[in-house]
Amino acid sequence: MTTTLITGANKGLGFETARRLLAAGHTVYIGARDAERGRRAAERLGARFVQLDVTDEASVRAAAKTVEADGGLDVLINNAGIEQRGENNTVPGAAELTADTLRAVFDTNVFGVVRVTHAFLPLLRRSAAPVVVNVSSGLASLSKVSDPADPAHPYPGVAYPASKTTVNMLTVQYAKAFPDMRVNAVEPGFTATDLNGRTGTQTVEQGAEIIVRMAQIGPDGPTGAYVDAEGTLPW
Fold first, then answer.
1. Of 28, 77, 85, 207, which is least packed with CB atoms within 10 Å of its CB?
2. Of 164, 174, 176, 226, which is the active-site residue?
């Protein structure tokens, strides 16, 4: 039995990923900051719930102890993430960027990934086929964002893309450090979720596809990759 933990899984892509992996036979932990919402989501799906705030070290450590006591972990999906939006659901650009804004986004999107991965590494390393999936973004690609012909180019925000580019580097370095582990970054696509004020152009079912696929790869699967549903993306 494969045991999987998904952060930020009480709604959106995380919830749909949990639903699909449960259907595939995984034991799934719904990691959520809000205990009531997390428990409700877990009950709806038939999943397990673990309280997990990726910005809180004590919460992350407690979650790791809970999962360890229940038997361990095979797959970690770092899904929890935030994007700063201003009035009228607009994304602040470079002129509005402050260190405080960057710090707030990085605390969840980058430091959260490091906190959770570090805490669960001992469990993953005991697994026969450990997998880490880091939910990134097409906006993390320097190649795509700097190409005037690419749809990502007009996006004005700084904090969110910078955080996801950092997640890509973390992915590469974790993959190099732990060759027995499959560690990959995925781009779900522009999915309509609360993260972007439901402005996305595809459904959560479509967005979860690549997350689910990469969560189920075997020991001979790719590692250190940055992919979407169509294949490898340029860094």
1. 85
2. 164
Please check the confidence at residue 26 and state whether its pLDDT lies above 90.
yes
Active site residue 160: yes
pTM: 0.94
164 is catalytic: yes
When pLDDT is cut at 50, 70 and 90, the band that residue 42 belongs to is very high
Q: Which of 29, 160, 174, 226 is catalytic?
A: 160
| Residue ranges per structural domain of the chain | 3-232
What does CATH list as the number for 3-232? 3.40.50.720
Percent of all residues in the chain with a pLDDT value above 90, rounded to a whole number: 86
